[in-house]
Amino acid sequence: MSEPLPLQSVQQGKKRRNRPGPRVRYFIQIYEYIGFLLIYRLLRTLPLEAGVKLTAALWKIIAPRLYRHKRAIYNIRRAIPTLTPEQAEFIIQDMWANLGATMAESFQLDRIYKEKTRITWNPTTEASELLSSRSDVIFVSGHLGNWEVSAVAASLSGHDIAGVYQKVLNPHVENHVYSSRLPFYKAGLFPKGHRTVLALKNCLKEGNSIALMADLRDVRGELVDFFGIPAPSSIFPALLARHSGCPLLGVRSVRTGVCQFRVDVVVIPAVFSDNRDADIRNTTIAIQSLLERWVSEYPEQWMWAHRRWDYRRPNSVQIKSRVDDHRND
Fold first, then answer.
1. Domain limits of the chain?
2. What is the pTM of this model?
3. 163 CB-near residues (< 8 Å, 6+ apart)
4. What is the mean pLDDT of each run of 10 residues along the chain (329 residues)?
């Protein structure tokens, strides 16, 4: 296993600044919320496809001028060294357009839900048979295409799922975002946190499915190759599958046109033996291998700008403590 290349300055986190006082934070949050509502109202006023095209075009113009663009270029050329600089630039430009479109669509998931022909549910034969025989499955996905559409597709297909999300710091925006997503997570929508682990286990016990994202950096996870480079990856889907005995299904939402999607579902073979730690690692490798293959097929639809390979992490005692927490829940 080769060591990753030295990280450029664009990979490093920003230095922590002094936080403003409560009164200043309050007014900042109010102004943020007003800006959020203005964008929301504008996009809801426009026809669905017009709003999506507008934000995709704006992101493609504005985002390359921001610092994350350099990080995205660095990441994709590191992961796929056969790309020329021109090819890498072209893919990342399209990535920003995809993220811009995703932002607009996230404000209008209810519209997409109502126009059912916009989504094609595409499970493999094996996955279809499994979904018809049991309701307690673990969907594992990545930030591909419009990942929120996968939950909409599952709901349209009659599957009650629970999801996990990252809370927005602004409480006013958080309430709005949460309420707009909740209808598609009929088994519950939970913020990231220790208590959520128990809630998800209970969902599976009650016969519901859960949806987890597995393509982002988890500094307390397992170092697993992603595009041949060690990347800190979440072991939680594998650990939960082994603990519950529920099957793992990979799911991705591929953008096939303006507000048009194909949602692919495949079975991920979980590993079960007498060696618990080896099983969790091997299943995590299987998950990351699938995600790598999917990203390779549609590189312009994945988020290259995050610090996927940055594995600065807590000490081993903290890591062991977190794993033990999962075992004891």
1. 9-328
2. 0.86
3. 151, 181, 185, 188, 189, 190, 210, 211
4. 44 56 78 90 94 96 96 97 97 98 94 94 96 94 95 91 90 90 93 88 93 93 96 95 94 96 96 90 97 98 96 51 46
